[in-house]
């Protein structure tokens, strides 16, 4: 199963260019089996996900959020599988991580070395479930830093598109032979490292 873990649409992310239908329709054409819609500091409702899912039965659609957990430095945490807007009101990163773990949601530190501050969460002893590895906004030189941190802290690395438009698809994703029939399954898959990181050039 080909999975996109980090995807924005122009419904809720001002930086995105494509509509949900445009993105999901193209994903179906490209063979994706599941996608997590991770808008910037906004969560999709269950009703919205259900409505979109009805139009695209050949792919599993799940909610999530890219949460800005600190602004100085900028740190973004993906929380996969949630439709709970109360995450947006939590100001302590440790509390966000604890809530996500208690609820079975995978947490990924997005593009951890993209901004100055170099993954301050990790320096403070806080541990997400995984680190984003290669993505559209985390090129090889930054991915190398993520790999170094992941090896040191024994954390999984995941590729993700950080998709904002149709032409961003099919560059970075993960593949697993385990079906993701409900959103909580992705945490089990990643923690057990039962997946392979892929790019348009092949597995990495």
Give a concise summary:
By secondary structure, this protein is of the alpha/beta class. The protein has 6 helices and 10 strands; from the N terminus they run βαβαββαβαβαββαββ. It has one domain: TIM Barrel, CATH 3.20.20.140.
Can you describe this structure?
The chain is of the alpha/beta class. The chain has a single domain, classed as Metal-dependent hydrolases (TIM Barrel). Helices cover 27% and strands 26% of the residues. The chain has a 10-stranded mixed beta sheet with strand order 7-6-5-4-3-2-1-8-9-10. The protein is globular and about 45 Å long.
Q: What is the number of independent domains? A: 1
Mean pLDDT: 96
Please compute the radius of gyration using only Cα atoms.
15 Å
Number of distinct helices: 6
What percent of residues adopt helix (DSSP H or I)?
A: 25-40%
Number of strands: 10
By CATH, the superfamily comes out as Metal-dependent hydrolases
Structural class: alpha/beta
Main sheet specs: 10 strands, mixed
What is the fold named in CATH at topology level? TIM Barrel
Low-confidence stretches: none
Q: In percent, how much strand structure appears in the residues? A: 25-35%
CATH class (first level) name: Alpha Beta
* Helix-strand string: EHEHEEHEHEHEEHEE
Shape: globular
Adjacency order of strands in the biggest sheet: 7-6-5-4-3-2-1-8-9-10
First and last CA, distance = 16 Å
Do you know the CATH architecture?
Answer: Alpha-Beta Barrel
């Amino acid at each position: 199963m080909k999975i996109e873990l980090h995807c924005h649409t122009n419904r809720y992310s001002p930086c995105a260019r494509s509509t949900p239908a445009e993105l999901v329709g193209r994903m179906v054409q490209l063979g994706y089996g599941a996608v997590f819609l991770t808008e910037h500091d906004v969560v999709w409702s269950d009703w919205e996900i259900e409505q979109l899912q009805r139009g695209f039965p050949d792919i599993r659609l799940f909610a999530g959020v890219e949460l800005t957990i600190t602004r100085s430095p900028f740190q973004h945490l993906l929380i996969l599988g949630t439709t709970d807007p109360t995450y947006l009101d939590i100001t302590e990163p440790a509390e966000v991580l604890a809530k996500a773990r208690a609820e079975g949601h995978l947490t990924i530190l997005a593009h951890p070395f993209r901004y100055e501050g170099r993954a301050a969460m990790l320096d403070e002893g806080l541990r997400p479930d995984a680190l984003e590895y290669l993505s559209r906004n985390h090129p090889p030189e930054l991915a190398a830093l993520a790999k170094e941190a992941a090896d040191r802290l024994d954390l999984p690395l995941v590729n993700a598109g950080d998709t904002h438009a149709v032409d961003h698809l099919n560059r970075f994703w993960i593949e697993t032979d385990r079906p993701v029939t409900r959103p909580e399954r992705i945490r089990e898959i990643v923690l057990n490292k039962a997946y392979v990181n892929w790019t348009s050039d092949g597995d990495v």
